[in-house]
Specification:
CATH superfamily of the largest domain: Tetracycline Repressor, domain 2
CATH architecture of the largest domain: Orthogonal Bundle
Structural class: mainly alpha
Strand content: under 5%
Order of helices and strands: HHHHHHHHHH
Helix content: over 70%
Number of helices: 10
Distance between the termini: 56 Å
Largest sheet: none
Radius of gyration: 19 Å
Number of domains: 2
Length: 200
């Protein structure tokens, strides 16, 4: 890794860490540069603005989530409905590890930012929507396979996938509010009863 790319990586990582600890609005460019050990000129060499940095940080975090949670959970080696269960299990493990390091459940970075900025920044709102839709696509594929295999009765796949995604985000939020990652494990058991119909 070159020196310049290392600086860019530190700025992205620093933005994710500082915004996770506080909020997007409460993190300034100067503070971020000091935190990342980068000069302000370097910041503007890589990014047009703080918004531009956050757009790139979102994709960076999306890739990290893919590697840690989504790709392992949605492996074709697992039965379709087991993939959804594994999504909750891996999320629980991730949030538990954050609490062990910081003393707090961090919540979903995308959900946290959506709550803060969706009505204030259209570009960031749109990028978040794209990221959530990628997750939705994985859930829809699971449900389609489950219906085809006879594990589920005929359902409204789009609506059910959206309900599962909303339920997943809600359990992460609830875990953050109570600072209890174990809620992800206990509430995961309710996803089938709430949104998935078993064959009659």
């Amino acid at each position: 890794m070159t020196r310049s790319s290392d600086t860019k990586e530190r700025l992205i990582t620093g933005a994710l860490e500082l915004v996770s600890e506080r909020s997007y609005a409460n993190v300034g460019v100067q503070e971020l540069c000091e935190y990342a050990g980068a000069k302000k000129g370097s910041f503007y060499y890589f990014f047009k603005s703080k918004q531009d940095l956050m757009l790139k940080a979102l994709e960076h975090q999306a890739q990290a989530m893919n590697n840690m949670i989504l790709m392992p959970a949605f492996s074709s080696k697992l039965a379709p409905l087991k993939r959804i269960e594994q999504m909750f299990n891996l999320t629980y493990q991730y949030q538990k590890s954050i609490k062990e390091k910081t003393g707090r459940v961090g919540g979903c970075f995308f959900g946290n930012l959506a709550l803060e900025l969706s009505t204030q920044d259209e570009l960031i709102r749109h990028r978040l929507d794209i990221i959530f839709n990628r997750q939705l696509k994985l859930i829809k594929q699971c449900l389609e396979e489950a219906v085809t295999a006879g594990h589920l009765s005929e359902i409204d796949i789009q609506l059910t996938a959206e309900a599962i995604l909303a339920y997943w985000e809600g359990t992460i939020l609830f875990s953050k509010v109570r600072n209890e990652p174990e809620m992800l494990k206990s509430l995961a058991k309710g996803v089938r009863e709430l949104v998935i119909k078993k064959p009659k």
